Amino acid sequence: MSVSSHNGFSCAAQALARTLTLASVVAALLGSSAIAASSTAPMLVRIPRSQGPLSSSEIYYANLLALALEKTSSTDGPFSIVPLYQSVTSKRLIYQLTDAANQVDVIWTSNSEEREKLMLPIKISILRGLNSYRIFLIRKGDQSRFNRIGNLNDLRLMKAGQGAHWPDTTVLLANGLPVISAARGELLFDMLKQRRFDYFPRGLYEIWEEQEVHADDNIVIEETLMLHYPAPIYFFVNKKDLALANRIERGLRIAQQDGSFDALFLSVPGYRKGYELIKHKNRKVLELKSDFPDQD
Hints:
Elements: H1 11-19, H2 22-30, E1 43-49, H3 56-71, H4 73-76, E2 79-85, H5 90-98, E3 106-110, H6 113-118, E4 120-122, E5 133-139, H7 143-147, H8 152-155, E6 160-163, H9 167-174, E7 179-182, H10 187-193, E8 200-203, H11 207-213, E9 219-221, E10 225-228, E11 233-237, H12 242-258, H13 260-266, H14 269-280, E12 284-287
Parallel strand pairs: 1-2, 6-7, 10-12
Antiparallel strand pairs: 3-11, 4-11, 5-8, 5-9, 5-10
Helix pairs in contact: 2-3, 3-12, 3-13
């Protein structure tokens, strides 16, 4: 993974991303060009919007999609991103993308063999590899237990918490790591607190914000270990939406080339922090096997 440093996003834009609704963030990012009146009807792109407060990751995904569509507006015409309130479970989102009603047009999630059969991935890693490195949320006071872990065999004596339908669950189980699962990911924080399992592996792009939210529950970040396995997160569309997939891929390639992809990526404080952690790797890295290589 290589990410160069750019200064393309202002502090004002970052403040907007923290405070505005998803629709407002997209409009603020792009100005009026995304939804301006035109002789050509804009391409409507429906995306999921969670019911609760927006996370920095949810804002980033929407902004990156908007950036890709904006990069191709001169060749493919105007567009309008429409956030729809949806269930937060990945299984439900996949159904809403792939069923006959086709209720959303684009979702973002980690890859798996099963998901590639159901949906069409745009194989550009939208988190630049951050999801392939995991560190743990643990209970305050348990750090000494993890200090004694020297290899995967030691870690196999503990239980991880994961979502029931997450591809990561399959990866952990395939590597012999015991897993306690929940249907909805938000339940896992309370399950960790209640000692249902020992550690909750989280991507380097999300763990900092999550730990702050759950700090009052005595949940902290483990200090010594890191899991690594290829787990790219992609944009996915319905298999019939070849034109949309092609447009998103072309837009992302342009954004990579002109530096605006990296500028957006590095404008998110948690992403910068995760990237710095990968660069310095002052943790013991435990390698897991996965069926999917990282892309780009």
